[in-house]
């Protein structure tokens, strides 16, 4: 496959086959990029990252987080609002957008946190700086109650962390198994049951980072009934389980917790069959010394935006080709559609040239200290991966190539193009 890209618009203007090579031709420029031996794939769309800016830039910022994303083939991220201060008003949303302007290597959007006043949501969507969705931390009692009040507008996409606070026990755990028992599957299941009732009333609900077979069964049933729901899963819930992280429990601590092997397998099967719509990193960086604390005091979160795509593709390649295509769509086309990103998420004439070049034969070892993220830890440290991102194009421009970052091409979305 050969692509011709307009440098002015960043869009694909021609796709053709040639027996001679696989190349990108960038119109009206000197750029010709040889993709010989690589797969040309749509850029990854990550619905769930925490780039920590503002408030915790010692852990991550938009420059470092987007650099890690670009190195992982990610061309678009949606950043969560749990900053310091939280981004739960129109004013703070505008301030954050201004703060991170011109810092990102890739395209990005911002979520709005659930405001104190429901009218703030409609105000944000009618302003100049629009959120990509509204994040609901359901395990916070106030947010749970507000969401069920019936006073919120139904138009936005509500991205919900589904854990019911009535079934969570805070603190008192010293091991991962005790931690998982304190935030049990039941907390997730009860939250999803309640939220399906809201979906029946017309709310568009996206369940983020689901962890269990029981949750997946509920979501399957809701989809069969035609409810406006969708779901994503993280790479760590696909690749790890409680038993596999006993030697590095604090490093693998995350909200919601890792589950049992039976759940991990069910999630992967749900992804392969299309019951789970998307893969999202939930990139949650912390300082290394924080994660090296004893388990109860270590913060929850795993940074994986740089490793997500090669890890999940490496896993999926154990299956037949059609299943690998499903995994790629869960990284690209489907999250793009869920977020309403016009002209992105797949390679076709007229779409933006958000593209990654992937060498399916390259073998490499994950070394957390070499990531572009500020978070120099990973539960995947030392893992051998087959398949590597070689280059990343954003809006038709080369931003990452063979280990080097080249230019910041990130644009804030939604924008008028």
What does this structure look like?
Helix 11 runs antiparallel to helix 12. The mean pLDDT is 93. It contains 13 helices and 17 strands. 28% of the residues lie in helices and 22% in strands. It has one domain: Alpha-Beta Barrel (TIM Barrel). It is an alpha/beta fold and 417 residues long. An 8-stranded parallel sheet has the order 6-7-8-9-10-11-12-13, with helices on both faces. Strands 5-14-15-16-17 form a 5-stranded antiparallel sheet, covered by helices on one side. It has a 4-stranded mixed sheet with strand order 2-1-3-4, with no helix packed on it. The longest helix is centred in the middle third of the chain and has 16 residues.
